[in-house]
Specification:
Blueprint lengths: L18 E3 L5 E4 L4 E4 L2 E4 H34 L13 E6 L3 E7 L4 E2 L5 E11 L6 E13 L2 E12 L8 E11 L5 E14 L10 E11 L5 E13 L5 E10 L2 E9 L5 E5 L5 E5 L6
Antiparallel strand pairs: 1-4, 2-3, 5-6, 6-8, 7-8, 8-9, 9-10, 10-11, 11-12, 12-13, 13-14, 14-15, 15-16, 16-17, 17-18
């Protein structure tokens, strides 16, 4: 994987990306940033960044759940004291056993920095069956007073974890619903299903070599109430050594209009390429989080 910093020249793109124009008429107001979003436009450049942040939050939260489950599974089935090092020392783990389930509480306190630089606070509650040798298990996830960087997050997920899929890899299928509130009190929501296949690094004992392929379809409701459907058309490659999606593509649709967002050729950067229905392309900058 190539690791390339964001070129300085790209800084000029963010303020001039403008609106993503397609076809049709009528309009609604995107009150979150003062832009007017007509039905000729799929999504504004500003809302695309917030949408990407919301998706990042959902992915990170469910990934933590799967990482904790994998740690437990490997320790139980391999009879070794396994720890990938992904959960920092500032997070407190509490385990309570019932006759059939394991209840895990991950408490990030008032601020706990993850290895990828994101700061979490609050609590993630996990629950799953005690039988970790089963071919599949379901992880129930709920949030309590949870913050991701400066964004308040509410919601839950149900993750069906498969020990070995048709490719011989661990896999998690998450049905998730999260709502996010930014410091300026604007809100957005995310609902959908994503499949996350663990293709590299499973069981090595080091989180930084983990690689995943992500597919799925979800609905994003923007801070102005506009609804978008986002569907992965080429699996998104996520390498934990990089905080960005390094390759893959998705389609974003609204009111019958669709644009394609391509995440690149494997470079670790925040740059994406938008393709309009007429074939024209525009380079954009993703991920508002500074870290």
């Amino acid at each position: 994987m190539k690791k390339s910093p964001i070129p300085m020249r790209l800084k000029s793109y963010a303020p001039v990306v403008g609106l993503l124009i397609l076809s049709v008429v009528s309009c609604s107001t995107d009150g979150s940033n003062g832009e007017e979003l007509s039905s000729e436009e799929v999504i504004s450049s500003t809302e695309l960044k917030f949408s990407d942040e919301t998706e990042m939050i959902s992915e990170e939260v469910t990934a933590i759940a799967e990482e904790m489950y994998a740690t437990d599974e490997i320790s139980t089935t391999s009879k070794i004291d396994y720890n990938s090092g992904y959960l920092p020392d500032c997070a407190t783990v509490t385990v309570e056993l019932t006759e059939t389930t394991k209840e895990v509480t991950l408490d990030f306190g008032e601020g706990c920095e993850m290895p990828n630089g994101n700061t979490l606070s609050g609590v993630i509650h996990l629950s799953y069956a005690l039988d970790l040798e089963a071919a599949t298990n379901t992880i129930e996830l709920n949030l309590e007073n949870f913050m991701f960087n400066s964004v308040a997050v509410e919601g839950s997920a149900s993750i069906v974890r498969t020990r070995s899929n048709e490719n011989g890899n661990p896999q998690g299928v998450a049905n998730a619903s999260f709502s996010t509130t930014w410091p300026d009190a604007t809100t957005a929501s995310y609902t959908g299903t994503r499949t996350r296949e663990w293709i590299e690094g499973f069981g090595t004992g080091f989180w930084g070599d983990n690689v995943f392929l992500i597919t799925g379809k979800r609905t994003y409701v923007s801070r102005a109430g506009n609804e978008f459907v986002k569907e992965v058309i080429t699996p998104l490659r996520r390498e934990l050594s990089c905080r960005f999606i390094v390759s893959g593509a998705m389609e974003i649709s609204r009111l019958g209009n669709t644009v394609r967002l391509d995440f690149g050729d494997g470079s670790c950067d925040a740059v994406g390429m938008l393709t309009y229905p007429d074939g024209t392309e525009e380079e954009i900058f993703l991920r508002r989080f500074k870290n």
